[in-house]
Design brief:
Radius of gyration: 46 Å
Shape: rod-shaped
Number of helices: 4
Strand content: under 5%
Distance between the termini: 134 Å
Low-confidence stretches: none
Length: 141
């Protein structure tokens, strides 16, 4: 609080009254960092370095798609190593696009196999029908 008037006792033995004075000293030039701040900064830098190193190690362990070579995302990686209680992932080493292509190829192979078996059954049934030849077929042989 600033006051322009103040009360002081009468001077004794030649003392003169002076107004109150506030002395402020500013250091000239850069301030040296205190040891505690330096230790905190060093610990923070070590923590950043450790986190960066852990991230690099994790990235090096990240699996890639066996077909196209694309790296798995975190969610994808977690889903590929999750315990599957009997459900099972048909292709845990493939990305979603490659897995869809692989499943479609498997479905096409299965469909072709079913069609081939059906064709064989029809040919066998036709051969049996020709062999039997109806009622007069017995007299030919």
């Amino acid at each position: 609080m600033w006051r322009t008037r103040w009360s002081v006792p009468d001077p004794e033995w030649g003392d003169a009254t002076h107004p109150p004075v506030l002395l402020v000293s500013n250091q000239v030039g850069p301030r040296p960092a205190p040891r505690r701040d330096a230790a905190l900064a060093r610990r923070a830098e070590e923590a950043r370095h450790r986190l960066a190193q852990e991230a690099a190690e994790r990235e090096a362990q990240r699996p890639v798609c066996a077909d196209c070579g694309q790296k798995f995302t975190d969610d994808w990686w977690k889903a590929s190593v999750a315990v599957d209680w009997g459900r099972g992932d048909s292709h845990p080493h493939l990305c979603d696009d490659c897995k869809a292509r692989a499943l479609e190829a498997e479905r096409q192979v299965e469909q072709a196999e079913r069609e081939r078996q059906e064709q064989e059954r029809q040919e066998e049934a036709a051969a049996q029908a020709l062999k039997a030849g109806g009622w007069l077929g017995r007299w030919r042989s």
